Amino acid sequence: MNTPQPLTDMTRWSHAFAAEVLKAGDLAIDLTAGRGHDSLFLAQCVDSNSHGSVLAFDIQPEAVASTLERLENNHITATRITRPQQIEGPGVFLLTASHERLALFVPRPPKVIMANLGYLPGGDHTIATQAQSSLPAIKTALEELATGGRLIVVVYIGHDQGQEESQVIAAELQRLQPRDWHVIKMVPFICTQAPYLLVVEKRREKMSQRDLLLRS
Asked: CA-CA distances (angstroms) from residue 113 to 6, 53, 106, 123, 213?
């Protein structure tokens, strides 16, 4: 019998929420490639070798190399890119770049955008995601997300910048309108410093001022 994952394992829940809406041929984005676990999962969900596409960001060359190795070990085709026009057709596309540059590379509305905010597991703990880059990335992700798509973020608050990053992102999500978005937060009840999960689902595109006037 398989040993169940811990109930508070937020990666488990993030994958479950992503799998509900992803299908072969979709575009998915990993804002923090890290060791490649999410990138591999997304590639398998969208069938990146034949149909779908995954775009994975990380500022650390070590993380991009680790992700590439994991993908290749699982027979997933991956390509390192530097320019937006290189994103064509199915495949996994890896960028050694900050996720705040997301808007430059998105070829079409993604169905799922995932992120793990914190530091690279097993890497230099002084290099971690920070509010000044994560917030623009979250804002862009919300704008680019397909209708019915989900932004899924695991937030690690135990590192030096974690609390500030968490507060800034929470403030941004609290501005969202319920008619346009569903937002949930999953938090371990008795572990105050444990990672928690945010899931944001786009219910519909934000109406323009012109459309609002026409409906009034």
From this structure: 24, 12, 11, 23, 32
Residue 84 CA to residue 4 CA, distance in Å, equals 40
Any long-range contacts for 135-139 (C-beta under 8 Å, 24+ apart)? 135/168, 135/169, 135/172, 136/100, 137/31, 137/98, 137/99, 137/100, 137/102, 138/169, 138/172, 138/173, 139/172
Report residue 210's pLDDT band, with 50, 70 and 90 as the boundaries: very low
Does domain 10-214 bear CATH number 2.60.40.1880? no
Give the per-residue pLDDT at 121.
Answer: 61
Per-domain residue ranges of the chain: 10-214
Give 160-208 pLDDT, tens digit per residue: 677 788 899 999 999 999 999 999 999 999 887 889 999 999 998 765 4
- Please report which residue ranges of 55-184 form alpha helices under DSSP H: 61-73, 131-144, 162-173
Q: What Å distances lie between residue 198 and 62, 66, 160, CA to CA? A: 27, 26, 20
